[in-house]
Design brief:
The chain is of the alpha+beta class. It has helices at 5-16, 25-28, 136-141, 153-162, 172-186, 201-207, 214-227, 278-287, 297-305, 356-359, and strands spanning 36-45, 53-58, 68-78, 82-88, 95-101, 109-118, 121-122, 188-189, 211-212, 232-239, 254-255, 260-268, 272-276, 309-310, 314-318, 343-346, 349-350, 361-367. The protein has 2 domains: 5-119 and 319-367, no CATH class; 121-311, C8orf32 fold, CATH 3.10.620.
Length: 369
């Protein structure tokens, strides 16, 4: 079902039972002092497209969590001859705004706002709760292989090497910590990598080129963990505020068009989903104050912090892999490994999602309270 601009806001709000976007005061009553709220606006303008075109804009997590919730989604503007709908992937792991322009359209623009609230994650590894464990179906889902995250062959061999010093009855928490340390010690951030990287773990291990950015480095963690039975997942998102922890490299505010960032989680029985981010440890080493040695106190502090903690100056988009964009004319050739950037197509083909200056999209963040 498609929706016109006039009915879009009503349809979006009713479909997800979200509170009204305005007035803002009504939203604050739902949050405690631990939570911080932001408005995120994404605008796409296909200025060089004539005729039919489509765009797909990533939206926040389908389900709210104890660290992130969507308070409202609002379609701010779109062309009169466009039609928009919110689309969820079949496994409910991602959602997006899908907009189509017909062949008579010459200007192609769409603008959507999200109001979200976040609070920092901090996990204490004590007093485990026996009720926190995955079902067999969930365990199978979160240890599955994907196109770029194989769990056999060289990937499994490397993971077994990472945990070789652990006892045979090692817990998932111990296995994940050993893999986390290996990833931090053996990968590096490559500033020449476009965007956030591709996350092609097999290629990285086969070529022994362990350089990349967050979608590469954290994908290595996820694939290695899955290959030895530890449920794990990438969490794709975008930075939305400056870091309050004193790390200039780990935050971005206002114009966040190029601030996409992928994180990772693993599941530990008794504790639930555990936040990690080895990629940001490597980012601090490369970028903080012009570069830091691995034994610098700021590196050691963030390395310890990012196993079990996330500073939530960041919006979570989705967990999905191998995504088929609805309506894409490219068929299977148009599938993407993950959705963290706006996507678009015209009769000329797929736009370069990593080139917002020519694709012409902009993402902004504003602190609400």
């Amino acid at each position: 079902m498609t929706i016109t601009r006039r009915s879009a806001i009503k349809t979006i709000a009713s479909a997800f039972a979200l509170p009204a976007f305005n007035p803002i005061a009504s939203v604050f009553a739902q949050t405690s002092s631990e939570w911080t709220s932001y408005e995120i606006v994404t605008e796409v303008n296909l200025t060089n497209a004539n005729g039919a075109a489509e765009a797909w804009i990533p939206l926040s997590l389908v389900l709210n969590t104890d660290y992130f919730k969507t308070l409202a989604i609002r379609l701010e503007a779109s062309d009169s001859k466009s039609a928009s709908k919110i689309y969820e992937t079949p496994d409910k792991q991602a959602r997006m705004l899908w907009t189509k322009w017909d062949k008579a359209e010459t200007d192609h623009s769409v603008k959507i706002s999200m109001l979200v609230s976040t609070r920092n994650r901090h996990l204490e590894f004590s007093n485990p709760n026996p009720a926190l464990k995955l079902s067999k179906e969930e365990q199978k889902f979160w240890t599955r292989a994907t196109v770029y995250l194989p769990t056999d062959g060289l990937v499994k061999a490397k993971a077994l090497e990472c945990i070789s010093s652990l006892p045979a009855n090692a817990s998932d928490l111990e296995k994940a910590k050993a893999i986390y340390n290996w990833v931090v010690d053996n990968t590096h951030r490559d500033p020449k990598t476009r965007g956030c990287g591709q996350g092609d773990v097999k290629l990285m291990l086969e070529t022994n080129n362990l350089g990349g950015k967050c979608a590469d480095i954290n994908a290595v963690f996820v694939a290695l963990a899955r290959s030895v039975g530890v449920a794990a997942r990438d969490v794709y998102g975008i930075r939305i505020a400056d870091s309050a922890r004193g790390y200039k490299s780990l935050g971005k505010s206002s114009d966040i068009t190029k601030a996409q960032h992928c994180r990772a989680e693993f599941y530990a029985n008794g504790y639930g989903w555990v936040p990690v981010d080895p990629a940001d440890v490597r980012k601090v080493i490369l970028e903080e104050t012009g570069g830091l040695p691995v034994n610098d106190p700021k590196v050691l502090a963030i390395r310890d912090y990012l196993f079990g903690n996330w500073e939530m100056n960041w919006l979570a988009y989705n967990y999905d892999h191998d995504i088929a964009l609805p309506g894409s004319k490219l068929g299977k050739n148009g599938d993407i490994p993950f959705l963290m950037y706006p996507q678009a197509e015209s009769k000329e083909g797929r736009y370069d999602s990593l080139d917002p200056d020519n694709f012409k999209y902009k993402i902004t963040s504003r602190l609400i309270g």
